[in-house]
């Protein structure tokens, strides 16, 4: 028996190209068993780097039949084809080889070409049916019943002439003008698409008459995100317009080069389509357009808060200040805060002072002004401070919260300090003489002072009280001296062993040029003292 490696694919012994589906089973069977040895292999494939299927041998003798499973769909549309090679050897050492192409078509319904088709596309290796037909059509050395023209254009593709399937003609289409599966082949002439549409372009640019095809809104991808920079600028255009909430046909409005167009819908504001960034800094939106109010929103500004029925706010006011300008005479004018509540609390005007920053405050220092209320008058040329009521930190906020109250009044020439009021507190636990407060007396000044002492023994009903007024002076830069004094209420005390009127009283300190206010308690006795002081300098 003649050695022959010819084999069938899925029981078909004749066709050289066999089409199978992705994941399909492929059965191979040798047509002759005159071999001593037989080998099956996938000799090449259509996709470089792709993993070839594994052939499994079967039958008796082993290898007379074989099988493999086509790969799963890789999803790239390229199809997958494999060259199956069968090699048989007989006892004399003679060898026979046969090939078949098995695969799945690509998106163009064509079986992709394998890498080494030149090794088997000849009459020796199983392609005699195809090769002989082509040779006969071209007058070659084989015979067949396919005929063609006497001449053709070099490079043109052949096509069938008629319906017999046996007559070829020159198609007039050059192979160079056919788009390949890979790579780029430019069209050299105008290409008519007829009524067809260009559905996708993965590379390059569509230009010329192609862009004149009417593209409808539904054909534009929702994710296209066409940038405004792609729209021509500097030329007149038309804008499609329609009145808000209207129906009917759209109209065209001509827009000149420098015109601005506001595109809106009837619910643009309520739907949040207009953001802060869309509002021009020069819009100057009138306050009457805010209705009814700002609601719960915190209103902040680096400028001024101004409320005015007439007049012009002061241009030099600090940022964050509040101004009210009015010509009315009603009882509620200027700054007015009204409180309605079910408790005893009323409206408050709060003045706060700290060192540092708002974000990181620190304690105030001694003599820092914690808050002031200022009355101003107009002298015909400008406003002046006519009177001030001021709260002053008498000591640093970190060591004491004692505060003094000062008043300043204008005497027609200058603003001078009037009365100063404070309350000092102290606790004694023994008979040590203690200075509770000191009032400095300036050079060439006279100072009037009113003092009230009140002491209460802890855990007892024992009390002490005294009230006195005095005047002290300094001539030039001389020492402080007493000008006069008077006890409104002489020293009264329930326990005679407490300090006397010199100890629960005051002393002139010529070292510091001050009046020292003092208390003295009793040994092993806790006494809480409150001293009210009002003084003024002239």
Major beta sheet, specifics? 8 strands, antiparallel
Given as residue ranges, the uncertain stretches (5+ residues, pLDDT < 50) are: 122-144, 260-266
Number of strands: 27
- Average per-residue pLDDT, rounded, comes to 79
CATH topology of the domain at 422-537: Immunoglobulin-like
* Strand arrangement in the largest pleated sheet: 17-18-19-20-27-22-23-24
What class do helices, strands and sheet pairing give?
A: mainly beta
What's the architecture of the domain at 422-537 in CATH terms?
Sandwich
**SSE ordering:** EEEEEEEEHEEEEEEEEEEEEEEEEEEE
Morphology: elongated
Helix percent reads: under 10%
Q: Report Rg.
A: 55 Å
- Number of helices, counting only DSSP H or I runs of 4 residues or more: 1
Could you please describe the fold and organization of this structure?
- With 538 residues, the chain is an all-beta fold.
- Among the domains are: 7-115, Immunoglobulin-like, CATH 2.60.40; 422-537, Immunoglobulin-like, CATH 2.60.40.
- The chain contains one helix and 27 strands.
- The longest helix is centred in the first third of the chain and has 10 residues, at 128-137.
- The N and C termini lie far apart (145 Å).
Task: List the keywords.
mainly beta, 538 residues, 8-stranded antiparallel sheet, elongated, 1 helix, Immunoglobulin-like
